[in-house]
Known about the structure:
The protein is mostly helical. The chain has helices at residues 2-27, 32-52, 58-81, 83-115, 125-137, 142-147, 159-174, 179-191, 195-209, 215-228, 235-247, 252-264, 268-281, 289-302, 321-329, 332-353, 357-370, 373-386, 391-403. It has 19 helices and no strands. Helix 11 packs antiparallel against helix 12 and helix 16 runs antiparallel to helix 17.
Amino acid sequence: MTFWLVSTGLALCCGGVLALALLRGRVGAAPPAAYDLRVYRDQLTEIDRDLARGIIAQGDAERIRTEVSRRILSADAKLREGGDVSDALRSGGRGAALGLVLGLAACGAALYMWLGAPGYGDVPRAERLAASETARLSRLNQHDAEARTPPAPLFNIDADYAQLLDRLRATVADRGDDVQGLTLLARNEAAIGNFRAARDAQARLIETRGPGATAEDYALLADMMVSAAGGYVSSDAEGALRAALARSPENPRAHYYLGLYFVQIDRLDAAFRTWDQLLRASRPEDPWTPILRDQLPDLAWRAGHARYELPPVDPRGSLSRDQIEQAGEMSPEDRAGMIRGMVDGLSSRIEEEGGTVEEWARLTNALAVLGEWDRVRDTLERARVQFADQPLDLDLIENAAKQAGFSE
């Protein structure tokens, strides 16, 4: 009710100001004949003054006075004839002003009914924070969150990869405390979309490592939990995120999912701060970067930052939405050149920093798409050295090139 009273009062004030301006500026103005009368009377006074000072002769003064008097009589007649018209204009102006006020109020109400939220009650900040705290305390645990979410279908994999994965599962089942086996199992289960099995393997890995578990171990566990629950950040996933940030406050994966958690409990202010800081510290090729660039402008507006601007894109990394649109208008040669520049940037970063298995796979796939077979072979040779003791990871990299048409 308070909203409607305030908005109605503002609408009436604005309409009243416009109506007064219309009435004073147009309806209330004197007709032209009245202005002429004032001018002619002033001219009569000037004639007498000029005659007294000897500027004009008596005969000229009488002739000019006669002409001005004739014009006064004519203007007075016009003024009398136009009285009814002036009254009509004044009455019509009042009607127009009233119509303007009513029209503006009606248009404002119609726009609000269309774009606004009629019937939505006032939600003071204290109530919003209390509702957010209630949502936080009532988060589902991981088991209940997964129970309401049907398992996602697994990704298609070739027979060789499936055999290797089955062999790894059997090995880990026999040696449940094998850190390397659990690491490979969790990563490869996640790679085929089997997030619940990946979550189990990652939880066992953390339990096996004990105090030696790293921030990334806990962040990966939270990642797998959220994926297994269909994007829902459970109370158990929140606990994993807090454990990751306790060990490394700058862990980017944990910050991404913490921001998602804040969105889900309606703490948009905290979500905006978390994601904005993460985006500014992230590389374009990080998996969360395109998601943040897509969602942050709307989140910023909802959090009260109406003039928020995204940070510029690192030219070495992935394409922004504008660049993607520009790429669609490029010639095939220009588009290939732009893609080649991105691939070169990824290749340079892998050489300098090592890179993850996903980045290696993306590089071999991109080089094969470009048809640069010699570079594919060179990259695969380096990968075989880098991942010599990780056969499943190496197989993932090789399959990425084969899917793009590469064959040795």
